[in-house]
Amino acid sequence: MHSPSEVKRVIEAALLASPEPLGLPELKRLFDGELSADTLRNLLTEIGDEWKGRAVELVHVASGWRFQTTTDFTPYIERLAPEKPPKYSRAVMETLAIIAYRQPVTRGDIENIRGVVVSTQIIQSLEARGWIDVVGHRETPGRPALYATTRKFLDDLGLRSLEELPPLEEIAKTLQLEPVPTAEAGTRPANYEDSAEPQPATGTEG
Amino acid sequence: MIAKIYGERLIEIPVDLYIPPDALEIVLDAFEGPLDLLLYLIRKENLNILDIPMAPLTRQYLEYVEIMRSKNLELAAEYLVMAAMLMEIKSRLLLPRPPSAAPEEDDPRAELVRRLLEYEQMKKAAQELDELPQAGRDVIAISVWIERTIAERLPQVNPQDLAEAWRTLLHRARMSRHHHISREELSVREHMSGILRALRERRVLEFSELFDAQRGVPVLVVTFLALLELARELLVEITQSENFAPIYVKLGYAQPV
To answer: Is residue A159 located within the same domain as residue A95?
Structure first.
C-alpha cells in the first residue's frame, strides 16, 4: 500500500503529465482501483491546497481535475507568443450564450432571439472548437438540428456543470427596465402616444 | 413599406444623432442586428423599455436605417422587417381601443418588449461568458515533458523467449532420441559457420529451421550456442514480430561481404 503522501505525488505526476483533465476513473486506475473515490477526492483537495499561491493551480472541471496556469500570469506568457489568441466576435459569443442557456436549440431558435440570421461559419467555428454539437433533431418540417454545449465547453471555461454558468436571474436583474433619471432626461420627446401600463418584464425562463 | 420609410424621413438630422461620418460605418457595423440597434437607441435615449414611446423610437430607427442605406452599407433584410414591425405597432397604438379590453392584454408592444429583453439578457450572458477564464486564452493547461521512447515500439526478444523456443526443440529432440552416442567432435564455431552458410542461401530462416532434432540433444545444444555466439558478434539478427510469433534469424549488418 502507498502512504497518502506517495499517493498524492503519483496523482500530481499523472495530472501534470496530462494536458487533458483526468477524472476519477483514470485516477483510480493509477492505483489499480485500491483507493475509493472519496479518498481520491480528499487527496485532490489537499493537493489543491498545497499548490495555492503557486503559478499553477489545480482546478476541478467537468471532466475531472487539471493543472493550469493561473490567470495572473497570462499577460506574461502572452509576451512569448507572437500572436494574441483570437477573440470570438459578439455574434459568436451571443450564439454560444443562447446555446449554453437555452439548449437544446435549433438555429431558428437562435435566430429568433438574436433577430438576425445565424451564419454557418458561426456554428462551424463553435463546432470546430468542440464546444457545441448536434444532440438530435426537432421533429418539425426540415428536421432542424438541435445544438447543445459539450463537456469540453465546460472544461475550457473551467466549469463543472452548466449550473455554474453565470445565473440568468442575476443577469436579468441587471437589465435596466426603467429610465435612469439624468440631467438630459428633460430633452426627451414628450409626445408619447399612449399611456398603457408597463408590461411586466417577462423574461422567458426555461 | 420602403416608400413609407422614405415618406417618414426627416430632412434635418437630429442633434443627438450626429456621428462623424468616418465613425458611422464602425458604429453601424457594431450592431448585431435590428434588436441590438433598437436596444442601443432605447438606452441612448434613456427610454422606458416597458413603456416604449413608439413614435420617437421608430423615427430614430428609420433614420439609422436610412443612413445605412445611403452609405451603401449592406443592409440585412432583418432591418427592414423590423422597420415594418415598428410602424405596424405604431399604427396599432393609434387605433381606438374597445373600452372593455384590458390595456395590458393587447398592448401591441408586448411582443417587441419581450424580444428586446430576451435578447438583451442573452447579450449580457454572452459578455459574462466571455469574461470567464478560457482555456487556451486566459489559462494554459499544464503538460510537463515525459521521457518516452518516441520510436515505434517493437516487441523485444528476451532471453525467456529464446529459452522457451529452445525447450520446445529440446523436447522434440528427446522424442526422437537415438540410443547411440555420437563421438563426433562438436565445434561451436563450426556450427556458427554452418548457420551463416545456410543464411547465405536463404536470407531469412526460422529459428526452428536451424535445428535438426534428429541429430540429438548435444547437436542442438551446440547449434544453440553457435546461434547465441553469432548474435553476440552481431553476425546474425534475431527478431520476433510479437510474443510467441516465429523467431526469425537473418544475417546481421556486421556480416563481412
So the answer is: yes
Total structural domains within chain A: 2
How large is the average pLDDT for residues B223-241?
A: 84
Closest approach of chain B CAs to the CA of A37, in angstroms? Answer: 23
- A190-205 mean pLDDT: 41
Q: Give the structural domain span for A16.
A: 4-73
- Asked whether residue A200 is domain-assigned, the answer is no
Mean pLDDT of chain A: 83
- Chain A residue with Cα closest to B33: A116
What angle is formed at CA B121 by the lines to CA B119 and CA B125, rounded to 5 degrees? Answer: 115
Cα separation, A56 vs A185, whole angstroms: 51
CB contacts under 8 A, A 145-184 vs B, are: 155-159, 165-166, 168, 171-172, 174-180, 182, 184
Answer yes or no: is pLDDT of A189 > 60.
no
Are the Cβ atoms of B114 and A98 closer than 8 angstroms? Answer: no
Task: Answer whether residue A197 is part of any domain.
Answer: no
Chain A residues near residue B35 by CB distance under 8 angstroms: 114-116
Residues of chain B contacting residue A85, judged by C-beta atoms under 8 Å apart: 136-137
A200, pLDDT greater than 70: no
Mean pLDDT for chain B overall: 76
Contacts of B51 (CB under 8 A, 6+ apart): A192, A196, A198, A199
| pLDDT tens readout for residues B24-75 | 666 666 788 899 999 988 988 888 888 888 988 999 899 888 887 777 666 7
Whether A145 and A97 map to the same domain: the answer is yes
Whether A150 is in a domain gets the answer yes
For residues B89-111, give the mean pLDDT.
Answer: 76
Same domain, A47 and A94: no
**Does B78 sit within 8 Å of A19, measured CB to CB?**
no
Rounded to 10 degrees, the C-alpha dihedral B80/B84/B85/B89 comes to: 150
Distance from CA of B151 to the nearest CA of A (A): 19
Contact call for residues B14 and B57 (beta carbons, < 8 A): no
Both A96 and A135 in one domain: the answer is: yes
Quote the percentage of chain A above a pLDDT of 70.
86
What does chain B come to in residues? 257
Whole-model pTM above 0.80? no
- Please report, for the domain that includes residue A56, its CATH number: 1.10.10.10
Q: How many CB atoms lie within 10 A of CB B2?
A: 11
**What pLDDT is stored for residue A125 in this prediction?**
92
User: Which grid coordinates belong to A22?
Assistant: 483526468
Paired sense of beta strands B204-206 and A145-149, if any: unpaired
What pLDDT was estimated at residue A128?
Answer: 92
- Among B82, B93, B141, beta carbon nearest to A19: B141
pLDDT at A38: 92
Is A99 in the same domain as A65? no
